[in-house]
Write a structure and sequence with these properties.
Strand content: 15-25%
Largest sheet: 7 strands, antiparallel
CATH architecture: Alpha-Beta Complex
Number of strands: 11
Number of helices: 8
Radius of gyration: 21 Å
Shape: globular
CATH class: Alpha Beta
Mean pLDDT: 81
Helix content: 10-25%
Distance between the termini: 47 Å
Low-confidence stretches: 20-27, 274-321
């Protein structure tokens, strides 16, 4: 686990200088802290803990997913649904969706569509909630997980780069608590007033005992399973169908990725095994060995928060009329040809 604030700062600075694009599935389990359920004006006091993975410099892992929207489900209600699929770049693979979408940002007529299919980032942390405004039953294991969006993450990251912060905030003796505060900006939740505590705090005896009894999570275990070559093929199919405005087909895709609450037919196409989550620098889709079957990735009810997301800026130009789905699909097919 990371024990050096300097190591975190160095890696964050290296990532910024490099530039670039500027789970198990997370479900409604009790270990996931639903801070978004706080009332406006409420705040929670959080103490982040280190990742149990000794190879992770940070005390979080980045999660990248892509939202594929459909106007409805084959044989079901014609209500819009969203399927969340893992972005291959999270594993060092080539992402079939972003391969198609990146060139769209060079065309002002495709920028809006490009943002729709751009990867959404969130960050998985763990820690204690020492002051909790939510009415929750006490948990046997008080170590919670947090899915943090870019707005809150940027506040966390900025403070880590501040030279006035002398110790890593996850230090058991000289660490720092984080005050997560909820307000509103228009119709959306706003967390911009969240901040680190001014004083350091040692973990108390109960917190240290909980770490000793239950241990820390290996955060990478809560990322989606790494797709196999067959999974990437299905993601490509679903992407084209989404762009074309077709219905989601649980017969074809239900055992791979599905919207929340959709039933999978008994005779649906079976999914092959998936590679376990092992980071790699290989710039191509993973080959498909035969380990245990991949879990179906369901869209979590808690993932549709109004998180801010950065996307590549389009070249400045007057926006012409947006291209239709047929034009975009023609471009995709031309690339494949």
């Amino acid at each position: 686990m990371a024990t050096s604030l300097d190591a975190i700062r160095a890696k964050l600075a290296a990532a910024e200088n490099k530039g670039g694009d500027k789970s198990k599935p997370i479900n409604n389990d009790t270990t996931l802290y639903p801070f978004w359920n706080m009332e406006e004006g409420q705040s929670a006091n959080i103490r982040f803990l280190p990742d149990d993975d000794p190879n992770n410099t940070f005390f979080w892992v980045e999660r990248q997913v892509i939202n594929l929207t459909f106007p409805g489900v084959e044989g079901g209600d014609n209500k819009p649904v969203t399927v969340k699929v893992p972005c291959g770049e999270m594993y060092g693979d080539t992402c079939p969706v972003l391969t198609e979408v990146r060139p769209w940002f060079k065309d002002p007529g495709l920028e809006e569509m490009g943002r729709k299919y751009w990867k959404k980032r969130s960050y998985i942390f763990q820690g204690f909630v020492s002051e909790n405004p939510l009415d929750e039953e006490p948990l046997e294991n008080p170590i919670r997980r947090f899915v943090i969006g870019p707005q809150i993450f940027n506040i966390i990251k900025s403070a880590l780069m501040d030279p006035d912060m002398e110790n890593i905030p996850t230090d058991y003796t000289n660490g720092t608590d984080f005050r997560l505060a909820k307000s509103a900006k228009g119709q959306y939740a706003d967390y911009s007033t969240s901040k680190w505590a001014r004083k350091e705090r040692s973990l108390d005896a109960d917190e240290l005992a909980a770490i000793d009894q239950f241990g820390l999570y290996n955060l990478i275990d809560f990322l989606p399973a790494r797709p196999t070559e067959e999974h990437y093929r299905v993601i490509s199919e679903m992407f084209e169908a989404s762009v074309n405005g077709e219905l989601y087909d649980p017969q074809r895709w239900g055992n791979f990725y599905k919207p929340y609450g959709v039933e999978v037919p008994a005779d649906a196409v079976p999914a092959p095994g998936a590679v376990g989550v092992q980071p790699t620098a290989a710039p191509k889709a993973a080959s498909a060995p035969k380990p245990a079957a991949a879990p179906v990735q369901e869209a979590s009810e808690n993932d549709d928060l109004p998180w801010e997301e950065e996307a590549p800026a389009a070249a400045p130009a007057a926006k012409p009329a947006s291209k239709g789905a047929e034009d975009i699909l023609a471009m995709i097919k031309a690339r494949k040809g």
